[in-house]
């Protein structure tokens, strides 16, 4: 694999959005396991079968056998009663450490299916794992519970799993900071979903409602609140103020998440982004995500 772009010179300043771009492609590969049938099979073997229970288990297991309040707080945009329906019952079904082991087995199977054994054993995968893990050296656990919990897990030996693990750490590090930006913008959980969906870069309303547990009435009420603030128009589209606010949220998130990418440096961030783009693109081409996942409709 060779670079198709002009590489950033060593010591070059990091572009303000370089970390965001790098995170996006790393997160794309991390996210594949949320839609993988391999995860469902592994968790079913532990006795966890409901899709929402599976989702809560695989992401919250690093926190330990926590209650519904902790999951609601750290996940942010899930309906509290939906969380309480499954948490902490999932821990009476399977111990968190067993869930984590099942998740890693499922990730291994998923990546082998999507990328192929040759890609997983390639020098490029080993390079991507090395770069991503180096970026995580500058992540901070302070105020970042999901990152801190995952950072305490051992790094897998295999390069493709080490790369996925590092992508997970970088995702949760940015995600924890993103919640601070949403709170600062005074966007509650449903308003955050509605306004993000209006950008066209989020899951569709149907997917958000089905996975997060909110009702159509909850969604419509959030639209009305955003309309009252002048952030969406009569059709539910972002106004100029709404676009500006969402931009501010992402810029604040970038600032809170800049440390790992500054630590890695502009040239290596560019290289990691290039490698991550190839792997994420291959996963997408292999059908990692539902066709109707993204968009405003």
TrEMBL record:
Species classification: Bacteria, Bacillati, Actinomycetota, Actinomycetes, Kitasatosporales
InterPro entries registered for this protein in UniProt: HTH_67 (IPR054058)
Protein name: SalK
One of the Pfam families matching this protein, by short name: HTH_67
